[in-house]
């Protein structure tokens, strides 16, 4: 009887699963925020940051950071849910001290992130869409790209499609972020809001703003960040993207420029 019930339940889900397969591709890249949509069940999305440069200046120092192979793998496990694995393959950092005139070079991989995104309304991202996304980070990376300890948090992405051209989005984030010294955790919170315009059927442009409050024991900070990104989907299952972020205060990184690719399977 239990086997029959399982078979009947699975059969009842088949039409919904088939309909989910037809949903439009909705990559996480590019941008600061996180979309509320999820992958259709049984489908993969491989999203790769091909290049990322970040500049940070302060207290007589300049640090240029480069990351290559910032990978995110997403897999749909249900019509409304997906699992994610993220990992930065290689990072290069160059720090120059203008006082001592020394230059420090470091390299290494980043931490690994495991996440579950559970959509609550409209998993394809149409209309009004809402999701929750708990995650945990595993300390497999090396300084300065690895945090040194495990972290965890929760994201709540929301999107609202105003028309075929315009949509609004927000991402609320609550983190048990790793302390700057790599031991222990502290509370951090962020809010990201954005507006996306569909320039054509395959090109979209997104403008975003983020405020981040960080209560690290080494020093509390509030960061403000602005971002502009572009995504181009020449095919239904393929997207190319590029973007730039600019720090609006002393605590935020001065500038970040990146580009990447996303592919659905």
TrEMBL record:
Keywords: Signal. Residues 1-20 form the signal peptide. It comes from the Bacteria. It holds the Pfam family Phenol_MetA_deg. This is Transporter. It comes from Novosphingobium clariflavum.
């Amino acid at each position: 009887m239990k086997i029959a019930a399982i078979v009947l339940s699975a059969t009842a889900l088949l039409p919904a699963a088939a309909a989910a397969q037809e949903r439009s591709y909705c990559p996480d890249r590019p941008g600061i925020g996180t979309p509320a949509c999820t992958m259709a069940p049984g489908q993969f999305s491989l999203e790769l940051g091909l290049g990322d440069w970040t500049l940070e200046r302060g207290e007589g120092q300049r640090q240029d950071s480069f990351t290559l192979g910032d990978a995110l793998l997403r897999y749909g496990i249900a019509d409304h849910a997906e699992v994610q694995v993220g990992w930065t393959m290689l990072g290069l950092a160059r720090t120059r001290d203008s006082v001592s005139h020394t230059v420090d070079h470091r390299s290494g991989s980043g931490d690994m992130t495991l996440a579950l995104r559970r959509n609550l309304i409209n998993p394809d991202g149409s209309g009004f869409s809402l999701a929750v996304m708990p995650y945990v980070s595993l300390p497999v990376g090396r300084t300065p790209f690895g945090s040194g300890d495990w972290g965890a948090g929760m994201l709540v992405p929301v999107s609202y499609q105003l028309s075929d051209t315009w949509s609004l989005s927000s991402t609320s984030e609550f983190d048990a972020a790793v302390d700057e010294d790599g031991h222990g955790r502290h509370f951090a919170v962020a809010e990201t809001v954005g507006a996306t315009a569909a320039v054509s059927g395959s090109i979209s442009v997104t403008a975003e703003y983020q405020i981040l409050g960080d209560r690290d024991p080494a020093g509390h900070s509030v960061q403000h960040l602005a971002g502009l990104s572009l995504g181009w989907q020449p095919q239904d299952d393929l997207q190319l993207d590029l973007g730039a972020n600019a720090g609006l205060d002393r605590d935020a990184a001065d500038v970040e420029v990146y580009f990447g690719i996303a592919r659905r399977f």
